[in-house]
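Record type: ASSEMBLY
Status: queued
Input:
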Amino acid sequence: MADVLIKDGRIITMDPQRHVLDRGSVVIEGDKIVSVGKEVKVRADTVIDARGKAVLPGLVNAHTHLSMTLLRGVADDMELDPWLKTKIWPIEKNLRAEDCYVGALLGCLEMIKSGTTCFADQYFFMEDVARAVEKAGIRGVLSYGIIEQGDPKKRKSEIRVGEKLVKTCHGMANGRILTMFGPHAPYTCSPECLAQVKELAKKYKVGIHTHIAESKWEVGEIIKKYGKRPVEHLDAIGFLGPEVLAAHCVQLTGQEIRILHDRGVKPVHNPVSNMKIACGVSPVPEMLAAGIPVALGTDGAASNNALDMFTEMKFAALLNKVDKFDPTVMPAQSVLEMATVNGARALGLGENLGSLEVGKKADLILVDLRKPHLTPLSNVISHLVYSATGSDVDTVIVDGKVIMQGRRVLTFEEDKVLKEAQKASDDLLARKEAAK
Amino acid sequence: MADVLIKDGRIITMDPQRHVLDRGSVVIEGDKIVSVGKEVKVRADTVIDARGKAVLPGLVNAHTHLSMTLLRGVADDMELDPWLKTKIWPIEKNLRAEDCYVGALLGCLEMIKSGTTCFADQYFFMEDVARAVEKAGIRGVLSYGIIEQGDPKKRKSEIRVGEKLVKTCHGMANGRILTMFGPHAPYTCSPECLAQVKELAKKYKVGIHTHIAESKWEVGEIIKKYGKRPVEHLDAIGFLGPEVLAAHCVQLTGQEIRILHDRGVKPVHNPVSNMKIACGVSPVPEMLAAGIPVALGTDGAASNNALDMFTEMKFAALLNKVDKFDPTVMPAQSVLEMATVNGARALGLGENLGSLEVGKKADLILVDLRKPHLTPLSNVISHLVYSATGSDVDTVIVDGKVIMQGRRVLTFEEDKVLKEAQKASDDLLARKEAAK
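Status: finished
Output:
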């Protein structure tokens, strides 16, 4: 007797051959996929009828700041400097652990409802974020954002917080929660800090989540400080390696793309955020052509302002097309790979996640195709990338557990989270005003 | 006794002062808005509780090809030339009147479900499109796409079809259906054709819906043929005027922007299509700064691949930001204006549509704000542009009639349309294959 049988769905496996079954089944036992095929005759405790639905790997949001959902819409359409200095930082100074818990729970809710089953996060109060992830039933790779600006005392205390997260939360919740070290960026972390982090990541066998080459401003800063561009600088100090998850990677030269490739770095494309903050267009087609498995992420809700990976896929498919005056770059299939298999690899989970294959973890989603904007159905991959939004996700399974069915989240009370998040946000903005 | 009372909603009026009422009401009698205010004590046949919802003018999709929903996803990620010659045109050659009816009904369904209440269309078999619009209860400004390539015989027959549409359909369905002449573009219509169309539009007092300066290829073609760039050429032959609705307007010089402004032309921005076909970035901030009320449109579903004006607003807000490395251009408020008041003006309906004001037509939508991705609510305009999608639309009212409530379309059977559209598309693609 299997645990879950999903039957008669349009199965998008994302396996190495990228098989799509027009009508097929997926069988789950425990937290694992035990069968994927055209017709599977098994009995199961839970049978899910997937007629009219696409069944695909849960999407991987490879870079976000989950608790920043509380800051959604508080400031848009501003220059980066006043945005940070007059809006985001003064609010963040007033953030409390409980805010980060509530914000993370809201973020988990939004991700589940839009088909994301696994994400990489970097922020503060990460043990509280872990609590939220545990409750929500989603999968997360968490890192504490280390910012030390070359201050030895701060370095010590910041790294200690990051290390504590790794020690206490790595492997929590049947392994759904993993951790990384999270040195924020080359302009906020000294070479000494990055060297220490690199050593610790090796010691604990975890990855490193950072931001690299997000803006022209950053490139100028790093050249001023170190006489090299960001990727060159990080390579010169021996920081880069296959364990490095590098958000943004917008301002890159061809030489820097070669370095990222040779070191096995895992870049994450964040098209909406890069457009909203006006940082530029990441050379994703060049990275993909170089054989770099670029992943996809939404960034935080303050610079997006949503965590919808379907919308993010549409932006990813279109941005490089117009930038290059070439409609053939970033085809739908490649973009779906970024949001699934590449994302899993980027988080160091390629063996276990990102495709529907026997032996992999049962993280998958059902998308309802019986919608006007998904009709007629001729090419399901095209529809997922160009026409669907997160609202079309019907069912979400993580680690073998059904955590959303018929758009109803089963792991916690949705309305309560919405109310608590509104209150936390109102209180946070009031504290910021009072602190003026 | 009023007909409809919408109460306790967050009212985004888009009136000249852009008033937003945190809690207010809208009263409808017949097809008109008779009151907008904080608290309205009237009795009404239909009372709609708008708590937790935004109430705003129905969105105006100022450029689309509705029946092309049947071609959604049949060809993506291709160069324009093979896309047209091997995919779109061979399929269109096999289009029948009934296909266009079914495709238009599917398009109406998609638009209603995503909050569009009025649209400008250009395609073939437009009397069948009119039938669909009449049935769906939506508002449309229809034009037949005239393509004559300088052939006098074709010109006569094409213009005759366009004129017949104006004569038979203008003012149908209590005025919900209006018409324009639709000369396709300066590279498919000769100066003689455009001159005749201009005369006829004047005679019938209707607008002219066309495509201008969509691609670099077009600019090259027009320079080769006429020694001038598209807008200069059209101005030189006296074609431009306030009745001209000009889709795309991507490849423009500063001088051409001045011409568009001086002639009162109404450009329509189509960011998703321009990105997908890789035509370029329209200088929308420059046009808006020049005082041109640029409208917004999705283009057809074959080059988008959806008709969701919320997603289109997000693209409009972000594309020019990254293109200019300036996050302050295209703020959310301006983008919402493009999709409402500017769209209404572009279609010649500014007096009657585009804002919630006493005396205007009752075309409005309710957006459910109690969603994870719209929480917390601090800035409703930001949420509508950056976080919402069409799936958040709960209720749609056109011409005073409730045509969708609780996401259930009331004017026709949704499932039936989905099935008919799938069949029509399957048959159409089969006919194309058979015709090879």
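Annotation: Chain B touches chain A through 74 residues (CB under 8 Å).
Annotation: The mean pLDDT of chain B is 97.
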